[in-house]
Write a structure and sequence with these properties.
29% of the residues lie in helices and 15% in strands. The chain has 296 residues and is α/β, with parallel strands linked by helices. Bound molecules: oxalic acid (OXD).
């Protein structure tokens, strides 16, 4: 808010943590700028425009879609570079056995191990949007062969050796050492990485930085224990925060992170909002209107 007040002092602002937004705030404001739908809001009051500051807009589309009379835009901020670093960190951590080495060091144990290179391995990128492409470029630069899977099977980005339609997923997972999900939550992506798909994996590490809904989370312990999956690095979950009772917290080959792979920045959130605002003030449709049919 401080940055917005500085850049656009002519506007009036009210700010609150998302859980603290009240129905009175929503009756007061014309515009809501935030990531998720405020929990207290059964209606959006007098709000006529929601600008979502997160990468995924699912909280505005399901389970109840935001009133179609309310404009929905999303941030233009690029989360790809941060998510790529999150993914690369985890890929190297698995490949170099950082967890086991840290355990051995804590115990004062000299524990030599074979370390295979990441170069020459193959990654299956599930999702070839802005985030998937950036992750693919970074991994390709490390010598990883990248195969993509997308809704349409069309993507001519040079990082990909090939891109297939999503229906090919079960046939492709067995050939990959890394499976990276960067999918939004939509009816088409929910449950995509099912137990049946896991069963076709041959020791890949699953990385999920999209949405927890894409993965059959209940099947993961079985997939890990049977070595269909060698490991999992998960930043997103079906329920967040991940409940204490989840076995994923304690599985030795699971790396849990608390939905931090691509964080919204103050500059990104405010600049994106102001870019859309300027378009509206000039009588134009902002470039970042959400396609509600596609869900992103
Ligand atoms: C997201 C975000 O959409 O953190 O997951 O921005």
């Amino acid at each position: 808010m401080a940055r917005l007040r500085h850049l656009r002092p002519d506007l009036e602002y009210r700010g609150a943590k998302f859980a603290g937004v009240t129905p009175a705030d929503l009756l007061w404001g014309d515009v809501y700028v935030g990531f998720r739908r405020p929990p207290a809001a059964s209606s959006m009051g007098n709000v006529r425009w929601v600008h979502c500051t997160g990468a995924g807009v699912d909280s505005w589309l399901s389970p109840v879609e935001l009133d179609r009379n309310i404009l929905l835009t999303r941030t233009p901020e690029s989360f790809g570079p941060a998510i790529a670093e999150w993914a690369v960190t985890r890929i190297f951590a698995f490949q170099q056995g950082l967890g086991e080495l840290a355990d051995a060091q804590r115990d004062g144990r000299w524990a030599p191990r074979d370390i295979a290179q990441v170069a020459g391995t193959r990654a299956l990128m599930v999702g070839t949007g802005d985030i998937g492409r950036t992750v693919a470029s970074r991994l390709a630069a490390l010598g990883v062969e990248i195969i993509g899977v997308s809704r349409t099977g069309n993507c001519d980005h040079p990082a990909f050796a090939a891109v297939h339609p999503v229906s090919a997923l079960p046939d492709l997972v067995g050939e990959a050492q890394w499976i990276v999900l960067t999918l939004p939550d939509t009816p088409q992506t929910r449950g995509l990485f099912s137990r049946a798909v896991m069963q076709k994996c041959r020791g890949a590490v699953l990385l999920n930085a999209g949405r927890g809904s894409a993965v059959d989370e209940a099947a993961l312990p079985e997939a890990l224990d049977n070595w269909w999956l060698r490991g999992a690095a998960l930043d997103v979950f079906q329920v967040e925060p991940l409940p204490d009772s989840s076995p994923l917290w304690r599985h030795p080959r699971v790396m849990v992170s608390p939905h931090i792979s691509g964080l919204t920045t103050i500059e990104g959130a405010t600049d994106g909002f102001l870019e859309c605002l300027t378009s509206l003030e000039q009588g134009q449709v902002p470039s970042w209107v959400v396609d509600r049919t596609r869900g992103y």
